[in-house]
Write a structure and sequence with these properties.
Layout lengths: L3 H7 L2 H5 L34 H19 L4 E2 L2 E2 L1 E4 L4 E4 L2 E3 L4 H22 L2 H5 L2 H18 L9 H4 L3 H25 L1 H8 L7 H21 L1 H7 L2 H8 L6 E4 L1 H4 L32 H4 L20 H12 L7 E4 L1 H4 L9 H22 L4 E7 L6 E2 L4 E12 L5 E8 L5 E3 L5 E3 L4 E11 L7 E9 L5 E9 L4 H13 L2
Antiparallel strand pairs: 1-2, 3-4, 4-5, 6-7, 8-10, 9-10, 10-14, 11-13, 11-15, 12-14, 15-16
Helix pairs in contact: 4-17, 6-8, 8-9, 8-10
């Protein structure tokens, strides 16, 4: 054939690119799916493609929305199931209370969670984005259905007096605001408890300005997110799509278009396929099932064409699968032209479940889970930390004793208040000077108490004396903490320090 441009137009992109001089037919294709050729934003209004995956996603989405609403109400052992009480510096997660001192536990929990996400991505691809991500769940199953109800679905204008009077758009944003306002309060309940939130709702905002500010900020953020930015949050703000290039491998499950079956694409009857124009008389005729109806493109919530291969914008929502399956049924072709699969399977290779990434990630997570459980089980009823006091390291009393200021920090992990007693040993004549008989610590409270330790001057060698501080509490709790007292090393230090103590009693 002499007219190569006409042949290139009939060939699929990957085939035409393989032929020298025939890869320039698609220069006008937009680089970004949400960007017009003139640089302006292309607003995406995806059509809804009904099918088995949409039904399953709808069930999962509404279950997650209900779970998000009721989690702050659930309690385990008298504690909230999930409460991130930042003001009190304690975090209730699944019946276990964590404190800022639990840095090792929190680190193990966070690292394990991230590695679990990595493993899940290696095996199942971006199923999280399309099925469980709050951005997708609320956008596709709450805010966009409201928009379609009031303003109509793509290609179908809504009817009714709201549309006639031009009130559909204002009413939509009014409902958006109400939904965002309720979601903001549900979000705040994870940080202040449901009981406090209920009191705040019926109280004056001036009594809880920080909480009111959080609700206002989250409400505005949701309005901007679901009313304006929409898919831009997934494409621009969220880094997860950019991570998939290092998280996925050729065996990972992703949404794929079967190019070998679908190309060359083009309109055809339901009983016959259009043959590919041959380059020579010896080349066999090829037939493709894709009728180039663009249903997979118009239903995509991020506006991509899945036929161009795996793209960063794909969130794995399977709307293109439902759309294509419906078309295949109508044209009497087998379903699955677009389906969940892997690159290796599409190329005819054997699927391998056991591979280095699939084994390594769960193994590391199992080790972290074991360490987490061991540390958690060995956590006592209280955390005790002894810190050196502020100011001078030591002073001399008129009685000739050396005084060291210390700070005893106690975190009570019990479900009831407790009294903790202090005692010192290790050096003869050492004793405590405090205005209390015991330190009373409320449930879940972190309390720091200043105490003075007095020791004879003769107990110090080279300016140091070793002692042990014993802290005993309820439920037979007891811990021994070694501590080093500081004192004068020479007679000159003795006299100068005594002078400072007289000037600064």
């Amino acid at each position: 054939m002499n007219n190569q441009s006409s042949i290139a137009a009939a060939l699929p992109p990957l085939v035409s690119d393989a032929i020298p001089g025939m890869g320039d037919a698609d220069e006008s294709r937009s680089i970004l799916p949400t960007l017009n050729d003139d640089g302006s934003r292309k607003w995406i209004k995806p059509r809804v493609s009904k099918g088995r995956f949409l039904t399953a996603r709808r069930i999962v989405a509404y279950a997650l929305i209900g779970l998000f609403a009721i989690l702050p109400l659930l309690r385990v052992n008298g504690r909230p199931l999930i409460l991130l009480d930042i003001s009190a510096r304690r975090f209730h997660i699944l019946g276990t209370t964590f404190y800022p001192t639990d840095t090792l536990l929190l680190a193990l929990l966070m690292v394990g969670a991230f590695l679990s996400i990595f493993w899940f991505t290696v095996v199942f691809g971006r199923v999280w984005c399309g099925w469980a991500c709050p951005q997708t769940v609320y956008m596709e199953f709450l805010f966009r259905p409201i928009e379609r109800l009031l303003q109509g679905a793509p290609g179908r204008a809504a009817k009714g007096w709201l549309q006639t009077a031009g009130l559909a758009r204002p009413v939509k944003f009014l409902i958006y605001f109400a939904c965002a306002f309720l979601l903001a309060h549900a979000f705040l309940a994870y940080f202040v408890s449901w009981q406090n939130l209920r009191e705040w709702v019926f109280g004056s905002p001036s009594d809880h300005l920080i909480g009111f500010g959080v609700v206002a900020f989250v409400t505005v953020a949701m309005m901007l997110d679901f009313g304006y930015f929409r898919e831009q949050v997934c494409l621009v703000m969220c880094p997860y799509g950019r991570f998939q290039s290092v998280l996925l491998d050729r065996q990972s499950m992703i949404v794929r278009y079967d190019q070998s079956r679908g190309e060359p694409r083009g309109a055809k009857s339901s009983k016959a396929s259009v043959s590919l124009p041959v380059l020579s008389s010896d080349a066999p005729a090829l037939k493709g099932d894709c009728i180039d109806c663009h249903m997979c493109v118009t239903t995509c919530p991020t506006g991509i064409d899945i036929r161009n291969g795996l793209q960063m914008e794909c969130i794995g929502c399977a709307q293109c699968i439902d759309a294509c399956d419906a078309v295949m049924v109508k044209v009497h072709r087998p379903r699955g032209l677009i389906r969940y699969s892997s690159q290796a399977r599409m190329e005819g290779q054997k699927f391998r479940l056991l591979r280095p990434r699939v084994i390594l990630y769960p193994a590391v997570v199992a080790v972290l889970a074991g360490l987490f459980g061991w540390v958690l089980l060995n956590t006592g009823v209280a955390d005790v930390t002894v810190l050196r006091g502020m100011g001078q390291p030591f002073t001399l009393t008129p009685e000739g004793e050396v005084a060291n200021g210390i700070r005893v920090k106690i975190v009570n992990r019990l479900d009831h208040p407790g009294d903790f007693n202090l005692a010192v040993s290790g050096t003869p004549g050492t004793h405590l000077k405090a205005d209390f008989a015991a330190i009373h610590v409320a449930t879940g409270q972190m309390l720091t108490t200043p105490v003075q330790v007095l020791a004879p001057r003769a107990s110090f060698a080279a300016g140091r004396a070793q002692i042990t501080i014993t802290v005993a509490g309820p439920d037979k709790f007891s811990t021994i903490i070694p501590f080093t007292l500081l004192g004068p090393a020479t007679a000159q230090d003795d006299s100068s320090t005594h002078a400072r103590s007289e000037n600064h009693p």
